[in-house]
Fold:
Amino acid sequence: MTPTIAEAARAIAARTLSPVELTQASLARIEARDPALHAFILRTPERAMADARAAEGRQMRRTLRGPLDGIPIGHKDIYETAGLPTTAHSRLLANHVSAADAQTVSMLAGAGVVLMGKLATHEFAIGGPSFDLPWPPVRNPWDTTRFTSGSSSGTGAAVADGMILGGTGSDTGGSIRGPAALCGVAGIKPTYGRCSRRGIIPLSFSLDHAGPLAWTAEDCALLLQAMAGYDPLDPASADVPVPDFSAGIGGSVQGLRVGVARHFHERDNPVTPACARAVEDAARALAAGGAAVRDVTLPPLIDYQSANSLILHAEAWALHEPWITKRFHEYGDVMRSRLAMGAVMSATDYIQALRRRRELVAATRAAMADLDLLLVAGAQSEAPLIESVSKWTAVAKPGFMAPFNLTGLPSLSVCAGFGEGALPVAVQVVGHPWQEPTVFRAGHAIERELGERGRRPAG
Structure:
């Protein structure tokens, strides 16, 4: 079985696991499995082996750079990566080669990761699943007829299948946590401003977040450790201390105050029985560890969704308007349709959405005043058939993830069981700004108590 990052890191440090052998196993897995999953837009085997040999040299010299040294990962293909194509899964950028690394790519390289390649996404992180682009949409490794969610689809699928141990994603309305939920992995959207977005192709400047996906909450904490930090060249980056995100992993949740937003999944957007059961199981897991769990009422889910969607589409149109008016037919159909919503929005619409955003931030803060964490559903259902996903799916019903893009709060998706068709279901653990260590501690406690991390897709 593919090791977790934490397991591999301990073995590499003990010199019982070779980074070269780990990378060779990852390359073999990609070769065998990716033709059916389409998780990679670009594979980089030569770069991977060079990175692995360098890591093994440090291992032999006992100069490892930390727990990510020698760990195979991939980058979502909106992360600029020097000397490699960065396409955003769009024919508009099919020939674009990055001149420099994104800030987070550089930071992860400095931590010693092994780059396995660039990972598929929805077009420009919004247009998918699309069947009219140069690369096919990603398939879910639990069932290749199923959707992965998006837009960090390649990362979610590749991690779930064990082709890589972790990878990067971006999240504007759920694009890290959605694939994490449907693919049965962990994914963290950190606090807005925690990670630099410099060198990541933007979608919505005021909603975009960068973060990692991996098999467990602990692994996400290790990846985030290397990605987080102030970047004065990113206007949204926050100059705040970076804590030890793993410090609480394995620690007690005794005394944590957790609010369960049941109205989100019972009334605002009713979920399947397995998704509802996941919330109850996660709540019991935290209560069993000594957390004080109670219901909490937040503003209606549709209020968050409406403001987030309007801001997202208006800002996305502002970014793409110079291109789409000249190269309309080079975009995929889904991308064109979703961008068009921003074209018909007025300045008044946008300003009113920003005003409503401030009100919702204040209301959420008030609801969490005597809480440490929120527990929220991860998705409305198990992964649907990919052929059934409409271009309007993202706006047809209010999703459970947009509230935390709008408010900027850290939100972690973790697997909390399995439902129909043995497909994974998930929950979100949400914290106060800059309190990712508490979020990781609770997410790890849920994983540990529910015991679902020993189950991988067949194949």
Q: What stands out?
A: The chain has one domain: 5-302+351-450. The CA atoms of residues 34 and 40 lie 7 Å apart.
